[in-house]
Write a structure and sequence with these properties.
Helices cover 43% and strands 17% of the residues. The chain is α/β, with parallel strands linked by helices. The strands form two sheets. The chain has an eight-stranded mixed β-sheet with strand order 8-9-7-10-6-11-12-13, sandwiched between helices. The longest helix has 18 residues, at 355-372. The two termini are 37 Å apart.
């Protein structure tokens, strides 16, 4: 027995918004656009706020107070924080600014589908790729690679939308590398995870001039929930629905949250350098994860940072040591790297023609090509 389609009605004020919804649901099962819908037996009500939001909220409140009330989505040209808060307080499920971001809207529809068991009009939900960048030890350049990879991905149209998460709770340095400040961080989202939806998440992300969206670390380890790994899993699930690529700077941590991140990642870039201690740590990490059943050779890729061709330890020596082929090398250029860090700008801005900048750009292009292959 097949499930029926969601019964959706919309109270819309402007023709442009009506057309936008018509385009969004231009399938064999379009949404019914009505000015005054019969709210009985409705799964979802989409309401566009007018110039009198108090009157709108009173109307919505009456609908939500009724027996078997529908889920309510509010859409509006205004994104004042007080409006959003008022909508949430009366029981509105999602608040969408105009123009609608279709992927986010479809993700919210899917959540209703999961709850009701009813079928949706033909919608595809984004499943973004999570790229976890971790270091074999401190000081190997994990943040440099994570930040520049994320920026280079964001500058390539083929990659779609890109986000960067600084997962180092205390020593996160992403703000310094990109010269940014934000009043939001993932620690705040973790403490309010039940309130986090696409709108809340968007406000928490810093929009870098490259087009990259950045979620900063809390900068402290106090006050985090005990079940942080499960909360981070929920956050990453939401972010996968909003972005095509999510790059995570995980540093060197291997706590439960870091292991959860590895488990959810599509690609893990393990950063090391051609030194015996780093290669030894790399091998120990790979062996430990394999014993835990978390090591997938297709997902784990080793990056040699600060690579020097005539190093005492060759690439072949390194591969024998870690029992795995090296995926990528980043040339050693201390001066260019430090200039970039000290200026708070990515390599592609400070020295776009340098070997290290070009190599990072090639890495981003390769990851996109592999994703579309």
């Amino acid at each position: 027995m097949t499930s029926r389609h969601l019964k959706i009605f919309a109270e819309i004020n402007s023709p442009d918004v009506e057309n936008e919804l018509d385009m969004l649901f231009s399938t064999s099962n379009p949404v019914s656009i009505q000015k005054m819908p019969d709210t009985k037996d409705i799964d979802l009500l989409i309401h566009e706020l007018s110039n009198d939001p108090d009157k709108d909220f009173s109307h919505i409140q009456n609908i939500l107070n009724a027996e078997n009330s529908p889920v309510v989505f509010v859409i509006s040209n205004h994104t004042d924080a007080n409006l959003i808060l008022k909508a949430m307080q009366i029981g509105v499920k999602n608040f969408f600014p105009l123009p609608l971001e279709q992927d986010r809207f479809k993700s919210a529809l899917t959540q209703i589908h999961s709850r009701t068991g009813n079928a949706l009009p033909n919608t595809e939900i984004r499943q973004g790729q999570i790229i976890d960048v971790i270091g074999s030890k401190g000081g190997v350049g994990t943040t440099t690679i994570a930040v520049n990879l994320a920026v280079d991905l964001a500058r390539l149209k083929e990659s779609g939308s890109v986000a960067l998460i600084d997962m180092n709770p205390l020593y996160g340095e992403v703000p310094l590398f990109l010269d940014i400040q934000s009043s939001y961080n993932w620690g705040e989202l973790a403490r309010n995870i039940d309130r986090v939806d696409a709108t809340y998440l968007k406000k928490a992300l810093f929009k870098h001039e490259s087009g990259l969206h950045v979620l900063l670390s809390p900068g402290q380890i106090n006050g985090q929930p005990a079940d942080l790994d499960k909360i981070i899993a929920r956050l990453l699930t939401l972010m996968r629905q909003q972005f095509d690529f999510i790059v995570i700077d995980s540093g060197q941590s291997l706590d439960q949250t870091a292991l959860q991140t590895i488990h959810m990642s599509n690609k893990i870039l393990l950063v090391t350098i051609l030194s015996l201690p780093c290669l030894s740590n790399t091998n120990k990490l790979l062996v430990s994860l394999e014993e835990m059943g978390m090591f997938d050779r297709k997902n784990f890729q080793v990056i040699i940072n600060r690579f020097i061709k005539n190093s005492t330890i060759s690439l072949k020596d390194a591969e024998k040591s870690i029992h795995k082929q090296v995926y990528w090398t980043i040339p050693n250029d201390f001066k260019v790297s430090m200039t970039s860090i000290n200026l708070g700008k990515p390599l592609t801005e400070t020295k776009p023609r340098s070997k290290i900048a070009k190599r990072m750009q090639e890495l981003a292009a390769t990851i996109i090509a592999e994703h579309h292959a």
